[in-house]
Structure formats: structure tokens, C-alpha cells
């Protein structure tokens, strides 16, 4: 059976499974739609959380960006994993105790203000749409190669699938769909990693293969070999970074605090029956996440080695099949600058080969010449990773508009049936907007996601943190802080990435901090503004202060629905 046919089979079967689950678990109430009835088992929720959290950035782009950045790419590993631990231990149990469906709902109630609720909705929409752009782009990249369509058409296909199960099933459909997607994506990530680890080092465990000797008789470890290969081509050593310490710190912090403020992950902890279950599901999710994240550095180094081996100083006429396959997508290319018909891959102006970082994981099995079924499995895994997160984000957007903006603020008299209808309409509109972002992305998938995390760190995280741990924080302080954090961070990113990209280097950055890390500064400004304004305005009412004391004791919860 051909690789193309296998790909159609694997991807088609996974789509049928996802849509079937959505129909089986379709939402019949707003509670089903928003939080899956509150009765999801901790292990199931842990797996769904892992799938939700491990997006196209984790599956498709992270190893690719580490492949090209080397040590500097570790900021993504440190920031995302550290942030998850922070979220699971510091915020999730307390939010679960509060028992609201959405993050804006928590902020609106905690800060006793519809203005705070609306500002939180605006922040959430900015964060979620920025994040979902990366996911839809990931879907488009997968389809462009494996279904042999252009990236735009691939995004539209992904939109249609997400529309089916996000709009129909809500959180209940998404939760059980994501369990299936996690299973697909982790197999798709690990199987080629194991194969390639055996081929390069003889060790079947990629995490250990990463530190083992290569089988070429040189006696060098994988990293020593990679350092030598890259320096010979004019690149800096793989194990040496070029980013300043302050920028590495800021990016890691922005990703970490942004993770802890991500609304589509936080809402996951509202879907379990009890607060203790929220803690358990956080632990299970960490285990499920660790499988991929501990493998990513090995995948990144193996992919870069194989890439150089297969294309450098190779005649274009004898180019490996993977190169021509991806060349048709426009994501790799060759320009014969010296007219010798040979591909030269090197640093600087003499380089003739263009490689999009986002293809590295997807192309890895082809580069290593693995069997067709492994290539097809990776295609299905890439789609699963992107769609799982996209669905979660779209649900968060739709629930914020229908529940927080309409039901709680603008149209309080609407019935539950009408609210559910508005939620589905909002999800449908969000799918269309997300698709446009996917067709016209602002950067690499992982970078787009980094911007989203920065916006979350600068806007939502401080409001949630101070709402739980500060009785003195009032509505004026919270609203001011969120606006200051969001506006400063968004303006900085837009200025350097879109308005003046020629100035996007350390010479012009504030304190040497890149747009990927500016969310940390935005967060500090948010907290400073919030405390400053709260000191000169009236304290929260006594009942709100009592509520904060109550939240900080994470025990007890309402009864759950049976599934």
C-alpha cells in the first residue's frame, strides 16, 4: 500500500473517530457545553488536558525550532513545562473551588464588576485568537504535504472538522475527542523517535539515545557530532546559545506565567467532580505531557543530523524523495546560486537551501526513510495535536461571548436554550476567523504561540493570581492592570513584528528583551498598576474579602453529572 493511500486511511479514520465521538457525546445543556457536566474522570481529564495543552506548537513546531535554535530553544521546554506545574499547583484547585465556568466569569464575580468581566473577555479573545492562529497553521502544513493541497485549502479542511465536534459537542464532545487525539498524537510522536534513535545510536529509548554515541564509529555523542557538523557548515555550535541571559529569562517567564493563565487549560479543571480530582487530573496530565516533552530534544537533534546528511553537497537531480515531496508545498526550496547543480546547505549568504522550521517533525520519518505507515501515523498525529488545541480554544472563545458577554452582561434574560444557540454561533464565527489567521500567519507556529502566552501572562495571569491571594485587590486595580498589561505587550509585539521588523533585534529591544519575552514585563507592569490603583481606591466589599478567604481553602465542590 502506498504512503499516500496509508495517509488518507489514517487521517480519514481519525476524523471519523473524532466526529463519531462528537455525535455520541453531543451537549444537551450549557453545563455539558461549557464544562462537560462536571463529571469527567481525573485520568480522562488528565489525558484530555495533555492533548489540549500539547498543541501544534508542541507536536509540530517545538522540536523544529529547537533543531535550528539549539540551546536557545530550551526556553520553550522550560517555560511550557514550568508553567504547567505552576498552573496545576497554584491556580487550578482554587479556581475549581470557586466553581465558575470561565475565566472571565471568575474575574467578573471576584471583582464584582461587569467592566472587569468585559475586559477579561477582550483579553481572552486576544490571547485565544493569537494562539489558535498557530493551530490552524499547523493543520494547514500537515494537509499541504500529506493530502497534497495548498496550505490554505488544508486550513479550510481543518476548520470543517473542528466545526463539527466543537460546535456540536461543546466541552463534552471535545473532552472525549481529545482522549482519542492524545492517543494518536503520542504514538505518532514516539514511534518515529524510537525508530530513528535505534538507527542513529542503537538505543531504543530516545531520551537515552540523545546522550548516547552515534553508530558511525567516530566515538562521538549525538551532541558532539552535531556541534562538529554545524560548525563545519558555518553555523554556531548546537550546544551554544546566542540569546542574552535576560532574554532567555524573560521568554521562559512569559511562557511559564502565560501557561498558568491560559483560559482553555484552566477551564479543564472545572470538568471534574471534586477539587481533589482537579489535583489528580493535573498530576496525570503532567505524566502524559512529560512523555512528549522529554522526547522533543532527542527528536530535534536527530532531525538536524539527518537533514544535513541527506541534502548537503547532494546533486539536485539525486535529491532525496522527501525533499521533492516537501518542495511542492513551498515549505522547502533550493536556489542554485553557483550554477553547479549541487545543493549547498550552510550558514550565511552562500546557503542555497530553504527549510521551514515547522516541517522538521513531520518530515523526520521521510528524511530517515522510515516505512510508509510511520509517515501516515505522523500525519494523523500532527492533525490531532493541532485540532485538539484549536477546539479547546474555540470553545473558550464561544463560551466567553455567549456566557460572559451576553448572558452575564448584555442579555441576562436569555434562556439556557438561547445561550446554547449563541455559544454555537460564536464557535462557528470563531472557526472562520481562526481559519483566516491560519492562512495568513504572522510567524512560525511556535513563535505565534509564544506571543499568545506572552499576552496571557501580561493580562489574565495577574488578575487570577491577585484575585485568589489578595483580599485588598479591587475592581479598579484589576481592570487597570489588565488593560496596561495587554496594551503594552500587544503594542510591543506589533511594533517589532509587523510595524518595524527591520528593528527587531537586541539593539532596539527594551532591556534586550525580544517580543517573545515582553509578556513578562507586561505582567510586572500589570501587577504594579493594579496595586497602585487599588491603594488609592476603595477596598472590595466585605463579602468579596470573605469569598477570597473561602476560595483559598480548596475543598468541597458541587455534585457531578454521571456520564
**Class in CATH?**
Mainly Alpha
**Structural class by secondary-structure content:** mainly alpha
Integer average pLDDT:
80
Runs in which pLDDT lies below 50 for 5 or more consecutive residues are 556-563
> In angstroms, what is the radius of gyration?
23 Å
Helix percentage: over 70%
Q: Order of SSEs, N→C?
A: HHHHHHHHHHHHHHEHEEEHHHHHHH
The CATH architecture category equals Up-down Bundle
What is the strand arrangement across the widest sheet?
1-3
- Please describe the biggest sheet, giving its number of strands, its sense, and whether it closes into a barrel: 2 strands, antiparallel
**Integer tally of domains:** 1
| Residue share in β-strands | under 5%
The overall strand count is 4
Count of alpha and pi helical runs: 22
The named CATH superfamily: Sodium/glucose cotransporter
Distance linking N and C termini: 40 Å
* Overall 3D shape: globular
Instruction: Give the CATH topology.
Output: Sodium/glucose cotransporter
Structure characterization notes:
There is one protein chain. The protein is globular and about 75 Å long. It has a two-stranded antiparallel sheet. Strands 2-4 form a two-stranded antiparallel ribbon. Helix 5 packs antiparallel against helix 13, helix 7 packs across helix 18 and helix 14 crosses helix 16. It has one domain: Sodium/glucose cotransporter, CATH 1.20.1730.10. The chain has 563 residues and is an all-alpha fold. The protein contains 22 helices and four strands.
